[in-house]
Each structure stands twice: as structure tokens, then as C-alpha cells.
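Item description
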Amino acid sequence: MICSTGVAVSWNQSEVIAARQIIVETAKGILSGSVSPVEGARTIARHRFKARLEDDFDILLFVGIDSETESLPLGRERAHWMARALADLQGKIDKSQAWALTVASTHCQSLVTRSESLMRWPDWPKA
């Protein structure tokens, strides 16, 4: 099924659960410091449709972080940037990472707390 944004949305329970697991593990990683808050927000935002959580209150915050920081080169895309340009942006990247962690922490914790219920829909059989 294709949703209004043109993104393929799965109705396959195992695909939905896998996307939700990625979201929860990413939230845990942000909280532990093993995942960059901005890169984690991008991952969570990217998986929201497959997870069927596009309207979830906690998820929407990560969409906002992704939108506010989309111009910042992080991860693999840094390889395509000149060293000087990266150095010039590093202060902005550091500030954005700190801001993202501040605003995302509560939502990460909420996702982790809700993880068991996120792994099933109300109409899914309970394990």
C-alpha cells in the first residue's frame, strides 16, 4: 500500500515489527550515547511509515529534528564533503547534536517504555 506521502506502507506484521524494533533500538542507542541524536532521529523518522507510526506523538518529534537538521552532513555523507566545509560546520553540528539530545531524550525514554506495546497492535494476537 502507498500512503499519501508516496511511501510504501507495509501491512505485513513482521515488517512492521522489524521497523518498530529498529525505532526502539535507535531510541535506546540515543539514550546510551552510542547513536548520534541527529542520525538517530533520521533513522526513526525514516522508519515511521514501515512501522505504521507516522502519527505517533513521540515519533513526530524525530521528524522535526530530521527536518531542522537535514542540511547537516553526518554519517556516510561526510565522505562527499570537503574537509574545510566540514570543519566550518562542526560547531553547528555539535550544537544541533546537543539540542537534539535535549529535546529527544524524553521521547526516546517514552518509546523504550512503550516498547512491549509497540511490538503488537491491539488486534494482533498476544504472545
Notes: The chain has a mean pLDDT of 89. The helical segments are 13-32, 37-47, 57-69, 83-113, 115-118.
